[in-house]
Amino acid sequence: MVDDCSTAGPHSSLKPWLNNCLLSHFIISISSLNFWADLKQVERGGGEEKMLSKMLACGKVYISESRNRAALESIERAAKLFPEAAIVNKFIDDTYNRVGYTIVSRLTPKPSQDSCPLKDAVFAIVKVALETIDFELHSGTHPRLGVVDHICFHPLAHASLDQTAVVAKSLAADIGSKLKVPTFLYGAAGERGRLLDSVRRELGYFKPNSGSILWSGGSKSESLPLEPDAGPTQVSPTKGVILIGTTHWVANYNVPVFSTDIAAVRRIAKHVSERGGGLPSVQAMGLAHGDDITEVACNLLKPNEVGGDRIQVEVERLAKEEGLCVGKGYFTDLIPDEIIERYMKLSSH
Prior knowledge:
Number of domains: 3
CATH superfamily of the largest domain: Formiminotransferase, N-terminal subdomain
CATH architecture of the largest domain: 2-Layer Sandwich
Structural class: alpha+beta
Number of strands: 12
Distance between the termini: 13 Å
Strand content: 15-25%
Order of helices and strands: HHHEHEEHEEHEHEEEHEEHEH
Strand order of the largest sheet: 2-3-1-5-8-6
Number of helices: 10
Radius of gyration: 22 Å
Largest sheet: 6 strands, mixed
């Protein structure tokens, strides 16, 4: 960063370092500008070759662990073995005992079933997570179904859902055959047209298994109510299951409510969600988040139409009716433009 390069006084020994730092920042900036210029050229109808080189996709990987730093360090080292893919964001929530990684890579026009940097990096993350984390020892107030709870691929720039679906299907097949974990597909990657929330509902995701607010330990049964798309039909309590899908961009926006009245916050979440007659394309649930806070945790399926600001206003309105106070909400990831820009900076090094 330029701020890190600033210096004062006649320290001539710093000049070579300063020049290199400024040059590096200049190259990164030019690389990002060239990327956006190429995208604009494609959008104007030209530059087919440039379009093919600007196909990007990201995978969001949600892991049921945040407090075991040694495990997370091993997971991140595994991802770095694939330099064409980059972790552009990491969101740790120690209260939920959950971490989310956003990994980005370029795609070819026809991604290979055998080799793809994005798939390879995500597979490495999954493999190490399963080796270093015991699902039976996990406890938290965020619902989950496995060590690696959820992986979602999103097309960026000029990639398509079909291209990212190829990556998702190939990853699911590898996880099922090589790591022996039941894997379920949804969205554009699923042949049955299943939605994420419907698969989760059938697998018991929304029902706390240890009291009214806590998810603790692994599955109480080795049998599954659904047949997985890949992997065994029996579930290991130390690993759980994995859901993998492909959709257009989904944003996660959480609003803290300063109350321990979980029933009241669940009522708010129900009335915010489309399923409960609330905002279109919004899914929401109430989750305990620490000793004095309960969150309205939202998935925004069409964030360009219903964004965080609208969620915030609606939660505040409903909370007022319940006599509760609300804090400022937050997103758990960057927006797509920021993800692309950060990837371009990292890949230009």
